[in-house]
User: Which sequence fits this backbone?
């Protein structure tokens, strides 16, 4: 056991917390010591929530958003505009756009962007399932809402080329109200909302 710890159980808990992204060992120690001061009932509720999440969460079979059911609430909502699909990188981006309350269409979560430097190619993303959704008909517009980075732009270009076989489908992207290299999930709601409303055709971007 590490000599700086008085308990092997404490060391194990700190080790596990420090595996979380952005959490160093000092932060992990503060979290663990805070939890030790919490009521046992609250700790049990916390651990049960995490365990239930990990064992029970689904990914929507339509858009790949996180869901409690096979089809998420957004895709299952008949009041949403099924003729529009907003393509995003991750689940956090769906949440960011929903907070603007300025979009009533559906989504498609890619699960990342094309990044050869990181070993991520088109086959590792949910691109083919997007193409399949468009091929079934009923889609009038695909909105590219990926981050304004080199990888995001490359992914926009790749998918837009794949969708050229359906010229009746309008391809648009967010207006560049965001700074270059900004990630969508960290953009403020007003800027993101304006970029969504003032989206532009891909060919003019």
Assistant:
């Amino acid at each position: 056991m590490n000599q700086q710890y008085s308990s092997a159980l404490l060391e194990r808990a700190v080790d596990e917390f420090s595996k979380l992204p952005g959490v160093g060992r000092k932060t992990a120690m503060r979290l663990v010591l805070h939890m030790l001061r919490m009521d046992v009932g609250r700790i049990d509720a916390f651990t049960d929530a995490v365990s239930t999440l990990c064992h029970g969460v689904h990914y929507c079979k339509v858009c790949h958003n996180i869901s409690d059911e096979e089809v998420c609430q957004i895709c299952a909502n008949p009041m949403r505009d099924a003729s529009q699909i907003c393509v995003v990188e991750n689940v956090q981006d769906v949440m960011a756009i929903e907070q603007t309350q300025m979009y009533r269409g559906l989504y498609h979560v890619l699960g990342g962007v094309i990044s050869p430097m990181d070993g991520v190619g088109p086959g590792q993303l949910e691109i083919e399932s997007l193409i399949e959704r468009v091929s079934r008909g009923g889609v009038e517009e695909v909105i590219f809402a990926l981050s304004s980075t080199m990888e995001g732009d490359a992914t926009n270009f790749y998918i837009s080329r794949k969708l050229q076989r359906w010229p009746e489908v309008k391809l648009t992207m967010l207006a560049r109200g965001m700074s270059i290299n900004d990630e969508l999930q960290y953009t403020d709601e007003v800027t993101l909302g304006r970029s969504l409303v003032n989206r532009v055709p891909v060919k003019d971007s």
